[in-house]
Amino acid sequence: MSYQTLAQKYRPCDFSEIVGQDSATRTLINSIEKKRVANAYMFAGPRGTGKTSMARLLSKTLNCERAEAGKPCNKCDTCREISQGNSIDVLEIDGASNRGIDEIRALRENVKFSPSRSKYKIYIIDEVHMLTTEAFNALLKTLEEPPAHVKFIFATTEPHKVLPTIMSRCQRFDFRKIPPMDIYGKVKDIASREGIDIADSAALILARSADGSLRDALVVLDQMVSFSSGKIESKDVIDLLGMVQRDKIFELAGSIIEKDAGKAVRISDELIAGGKDPVFLNSSLISHFRDIMVVKTIGEASSDMAMSDEETKVIMEQKEGISLEEILYVLQNLTHCASLMKNSMFSRAPFEVTLIRLAKRASAMKLTDIVSRLEALEGKGELNSGPERVSRGGGQAIGREASPVKTSPGTDEISQKASFPRQALPVEPDAGTQDEDEEMGGEVLPNPAGFDDQKNRWKSLLNHIRTRKMSVFVFLNSAHLLEMKADSLAVGFDKENIFNKEALETGPNRSVLQEAADKLMGRPVRISFSILENESGQEKNRLELEQKKVIEKEKMKPAIEKALDIFGGHVVRDISDGV
Questions:
Q1: CB 57 within 8 A of CB 18
Q2: Mean pLDDT over residues 560-565, rounded?
């Protein structure tokens, strides 16, 4: 007889031998005893957790000639044929290689025929999520109303890829990862039955490395028998799997807890030089500090840790040297380091940087300390209230950040429908100076008498409107100032900004602009809007030319005034204005 691997040899032959899936086992046994067996089942869960074994057990129990109390006899021809996988009435189909609609059509034709010698014809489709959408749809009707002699059992590791219409026609059982201690017990039991001498520490490491898969653990145990010449020690498992010795992880974690950056870098250098991958070291540290976090929180080890008494003692000691907040800080940085290493060709540097940062965590200020220092500065008057207040040379505030505008029920529909960015837009502060400030609804704006050019008035108007209603500010910010006199304001819009012009002409928006202009100028202001045509370039430059004239005239004022004093004259007409 050919050699059988341990995973094949010790495949469960009874429901009691299924490890770690108590709820699914109990439900299926009860459904068989009460004769409430469904037409289709869906077994979903990680690899190596017993899905196919459960499907075979269910098939044997349903077709067994001498089944008792919901258990197969494992002695009749039917049970032996199903166990060996050569039963003509229990068909195991690989969903990956039989995923097309043609295979499902053939299956639909075959279900019409009665079983040859058993009570039920059972189809076990493994990795059913690999079927195409067309194949799933072709199976729907047969799955919902199959012949009385047909049962379907599906198994999948990715249930989210199965169509909801298929899932809704099945009784679903979710298989969980097998706890490490359950795997440890099974490994020790099989090793005892096979005459394999394995140390408890080695079995624990093997159980932890299996990641919830009993099959993976048995495959490694099979491999260890060939690798080890005598008793299987923990060092043998570590060497074969390329793992890091647990005490080295404890030592590395201890250097972080002790805040010894030099020691942490030396240990990591030693491990990396020995061929250990920084990514694996980082994940091992994450697992270790997670264990410390759980023990620190609940006061004892959880069932999934699978630690020896010595390892539990080290965890208990290390948890006393670090606070829960620090543990969370360490885990956050290690997790971030894992994502950095995925996108880096040189994974060692991010890992070492993280180790140093964690060991030097004492130099990082706590949030409470930062808040306390800010409050102290604010109390001394050294902390500015923020960018929302702007001060002039005289120290007076001339603007503050826009507050949310409370709109009345009559708010214009155009500004509500349009979508504009709500971030603060850059507006230059007013350049002019004045002796007295005019209060405008809580906003201090410059007195027009202190301005000699229209540009500064325009900026002051924009500043005020920005604090009143942001949508009006956005509309007006795209306009070009054509003229701004004591009693009139003319603005122009490019053709592509016609919408903004129309929005400003509506009642509520125009009222905001009108109120701001009237208060700024100290008198009623006539506002006009226009669309700039092709010659708009000349119109845009007119104001700039006028401003230049004003500047030049200001420069000439001292010379003119001196001439007037010498000759005792006065100004009759200013020809620079073209009047």
A1: yes
A2: 62
Q: Cα 200 from chain centroid?
A: 40
Counting every residue written for the chain, the total comes to 579
Question: What is the rounded CA–CA span in Å between residue 375 and residue 382?
Answer: 10
**CB distance 186 to 214 below 8 Å:** yes
Residue 114 is classified by DSSP as P
CB count, 10 Å around CB of 69?
Answer: 9
Q: Please report the DSSP string for 255-292 in residue order.
A: HHHTT-HHHHHHHHHHHHHTT--HHHHHHHHHHHHHHH
Q: Residue 417 in contact with residue 391, Cβ under 8 Å?
A: no
449 φ/ψ angles, rounded to the nearest 5 degrees: -65, -20
The tokens describing 68, both together, are: 């008792």
The Cα 487–Cα 534 span in angstroms is 28
For the chain, the C-alpha Rg in angstroms (whole number) is 41
Q: Does residue 317 lie within any of the structural domains?
A: yes
**Amino acid residing at 116:** S
Pair (335, 270) in one structural domain: yes
**Domain-ending residue, one of 123, 156, 176:** 176
Does 298 share its domain with 406?
no
Query: What residues form DSSP beta bridges with 68?
Result: 71
| 206-248 residue pLDDT tens | 888 888 899 999 999 988 888 877 788 888 888 888 888 888 9
Q: What is the pLDDT of residues 10-57, one digit of tens each?
A: 888 888 889 989 999 999 999 998 889 999 999 999 999 999 999 999
Is the CB of residue 153 less than 8 Å from the CB of residue 39? no
Instruction: Count CB atoms within 10 A of the CB of residue 120.
Output: 18
Task: Give the helix/strand (H/E) hosting 550.
Answer: helix 536-567
Note the pLDDT tens digit of each residue in 487-539.
Answer: 888 888 887 778 778 888 877 888 888 888 888 888 888 888 888 865 444 55
Kindly compute the dihedral angle of the four CA atoms of residues 222, 51, 128, 65, in this order, to the nearest 10 degrees. 110
Strands 480-484 and 488-493, sheet pairing: antiparallel
Question: Max CA-CA distance within the chain?
Answer: 136
Looking at the structure, tell me whether residues 292 and 318 fall in a common domain: yes
Neighbours of 573 (CB within 10 A): 7
* CA atoms of 574 and 570, how far apart (whole Å): 11
Q: Which of 252, 241, 232 is nearest to 275 (CA)?
A: 241
Burial grade of 178 (CB within 10 A; 0-12, 13-18, 19 or more): buried
Give the number of domains in the chain: 4
Q: Which of 421, 448, 52 is nearest to 214 (CA)?
A: 52
Structural domain containing residue 401:
390-532
